[in-house]
């Protein structure tokens, strides 16, 4: 993709207006502002590379070419949707401010792209992954607890990394997760996960806790006695996946597997939605790609004339 880095003054001014709008008027989070600006700068550079030196000269065809090129470069559907939203927001603002005579992004559509199904591990692959950590060592106890918690609760990596000790109730077999939108949800834990967490808290965590100058309230600690970060959790999963020869596996892979295995086991979609902490049922519906064998078995069991 041809992108100019030295943007003409009209583009630089338009981006400055967009920046102040996102930061000072909409008061978006810093990372969100950076993401929108990165997309807007990419769009500006692409247009300037076509010789369009002023946003007011942009035609809808140029924007469609930009998105088509991104699609050819294998950008994910979510990325294309975000970039389209950035273009609409950018030009919509310029139109309201009178910096462009008309909004070329008004009817901009996202290029069609096949929806990627999430990678899901089979139950035996999950078992192989969970068996990798050496439970005879403090590190192994911690890593086993990390993996068991991820698969037993379907937690996002951000929810697990900062999980406080008092959020885990081993007596009732549940964990309280602090999710998106600052919403809490209580999720059941199976016996294997409870056993793994109990062993870690009893035999492993005390050895790590003394390493820190201050005691961390987090369940999961590093060797230094500090709370594990999302990257620390990802490293645990990557190491175990390599040991089990499973290829690329992430914490989200275990979340996908958790949801899919629940549905295959007969859980209803709305229950899975609540367990995952999804605001919309449509987000959960991606997990309905259960096996044909399971669907056939469900049909034969439930339909009176199967």
Description:
The radius of gyration is 24 Å and the shape is elongated. The protein has helices spanning 9-25, 30-49, 60-72, 77-96, 123-130, 138-153, 157-161, 191-209, 230-243, 251-264, 269-276, 281-284, 292-302, and strands spanning 168-169, 174-178, 184-188. The chain has 2 domains: 9-96, DNA polymerase, domain 1 (Orthogonal Bundle); 123-252, Intergrase catalytic core (hpI Integrase, Chain A), CATH 1.10.443. It is mainly alpha-helical. The protein contains 13 helices and 3 strands; from the N terminus they run αααααααβββαααααα.
Q: N-to-C terminal Cα separation, in Å?
A: 55 Å
- Would you identify the CATH H-level superfamily of the largest domain? Intergrase catalytic core
The fraction of residues assigned to DSSP E strands is under 5%
CATH architecture of the largest domain: Orthogonal Bundle
Strand count, sense and closure of the main sheet?
A: 3 strands, antiparallel
Please give the order of strands in the largest beta sheet.
1-2-3
Q: Would you report the number of β strands?
A: 3
Helix content: 55-70%
Rg, alpha carbons? 24 Å
Please name the CATH topology of the largest domain: hpI Integrase, Chain A
Q: Which sequence of SSEs, written as H and E, runs from N to C?
A: HHHHHHHEEEHHHHHH
Sequence stretches where pLDDT stays below 50 over 5 or more residues: 290-295
- Name of the CATH first level of the largest domain: Mainly Alpha
Determine the number of helices (DSSP H or I, runs of at least 4 residues).
13
Count of distinct structural domains: 2
């Amino acid at each position: 993709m041809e992108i100019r880095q030295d943007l003409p003054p009209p583009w630089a001014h338009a981006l400055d207006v967009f920046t102040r709008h996102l930061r000072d008027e909409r008061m978006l989070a810093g990372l969100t502002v950076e993401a929108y600006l990165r997309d807007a700068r990419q769009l500006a550079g692409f247009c300037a590379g076509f010789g369009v030196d002023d946003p007011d000269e942009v035609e809808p065809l140029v924007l469609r070419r930009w998105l088509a090129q991104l699609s050819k470069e294998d950008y994910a559907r979510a990325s294309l949707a975000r970039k389209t939203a950035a273009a609409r927001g950018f030009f919509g603002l310029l139109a309201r401010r009178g910096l462009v005579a008309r909004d070329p992004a008004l009817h901009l559509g996202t290029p069609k792209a096949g929806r990627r199904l999430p990678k899901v591990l089979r139950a035996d692959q999950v078992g192989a992954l969970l068996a990798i950590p050496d439970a005879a060592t403090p590190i192994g106890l911690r890593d086993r607890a990390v993996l068991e918690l991820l698969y037993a609760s379907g937690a996002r990596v951000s929810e697990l990394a900062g999980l406080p000790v008092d959020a885990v109730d081993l007596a009732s077999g549940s964990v309280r997760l602090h999710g998106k939108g600052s919403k809490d949800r209580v999720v059941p834990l199976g016996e294997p996960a409870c056993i793994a967490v109990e062993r870690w808290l009893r035999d492993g965590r005390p050895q790590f806790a003394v390493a820190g100058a201050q005691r961390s309230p987090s369940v999961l600690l590093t060797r230094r006695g500090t709370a594990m970060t999302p990257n620390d959790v990802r490293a645990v999963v990557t190491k175990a996946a390599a040991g089990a020869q499973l290829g690329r596996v992430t914490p989200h892979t275990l979340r996908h597997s958790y949801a899919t295995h629940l549905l295959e086991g007969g859980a209803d979609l709305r229950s899975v939605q609540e367990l995952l902490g999804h605001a919309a049922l449509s987000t959960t519906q991606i997990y309905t790609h259960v096996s044909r064998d399971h669907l056939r078995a469900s049909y034969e069991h439930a339909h009176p004339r199967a």
